[in-house]
Amino acid sequence: MIYCCGAKVKVEGMEVEVLEDPVTTYCPLSSRIYGVERIDREAVKQIVLKKLRDKGFASERRVFTSEVLVPFGASEVTMSCMRRGLVECAVTVCEGVGTVVTSSPELVQMIGSFLTGIISTHPVSGILSRVKGLGGVVLDEATAKIDQVDGVKLAAQMGFKRIAVTVAGFRCWEIPALRRVEEELKLELVVMVVCTTRVGVEDLKSISMADLVWACNSKLIKEKLASQAKFQLGVSIPVFALTSRGKAMLLTHLGDLEEPMVAFRAKLPYEAPGKGPRS
Question: How many CB atoms lie under 10 A from the CB of residue 201?
Fold first, then answer.
């Protein structure tokens, strides 16, 4: 089960069932990557089918490539910071295996390059063998459980202290627990919140405890949290650094990019009309 453009989608083999209307009607990434200008149920279905056909999403044919599709994505930022030594490992989620711990920057990107919000998954042997072969340690091979708190505990048992961990907005209740584990085990976590399109007011307190937040198509994030940010990366789908640690991650990632950039002071969120996703 996944989220795509804010719609819950059931995937079984090559069968795709869109269970509800998407929250997003236009997304600049969907436009650029999939050529979709108007998002409805059928468009969501076609986007997911393309992931299945071209990338082997959630199947034995799953493609593992470190190709960068989104310059400011969570996996891209994490890969840069792992290479530079800001963090030692990442706790992430991959379809077919669930929670994964890895010290391989390349595997982080291979998992996340075309990932969408994973609600739940089941074991896929081909994906499991590739993830393990590429340097990943799976939290629960038998069930493909998603549990980022237990994932961080596993990373700590493996000897890691500086850990990046992704948390989906719809699982933001994990964030307070992560902070407790961080304090108890004397870790340095970078909590990165992704897939925030459907977050509600009740989620803001937990999300405000993160280091980095991807706004996706959430007006709530922009209206209620962005003003607290120390740094914003991107305009169409902005990333907000709520802490100095998060800001350091984004600035480190920028150092790895060769495209021309501009930086200036601004009241956050900084927005450009017509640039972002629309509901």
Answer: 8
Q: What percent of the chain has pLDDT over 70?
A: 100
Predicted confidence at residue 226, as pLDDT, reads: 96
The predicted model scores a pTM of 0.96
Residue tagged 């071209």 (tokens): 54
Return all residues near 20 (Cβ < 8 A) that are at least 6 apart: 7, 8
Helical ranges in the chain per DSSP H: 28-34, 41-55, 74-84, 105-112, 125-133, 148-157, 174-185, 204-207, 219-220, 244-254
Distance CA 86, CA 88 (A): 7
Q: How far apart are CA 180 and CA 195, in angstroms?
A: 23
User: How large is the average pLDDT for residues 138-161?
Assistant: 99
Backbone angles phi, psi at 262, to 5 degrees: -135, 140
Query: How far apart are alpha carbons 47 and 7 in whole angstroms?
Result: 12
**Size of the chain, expressed as the number of residues it contains:** 279
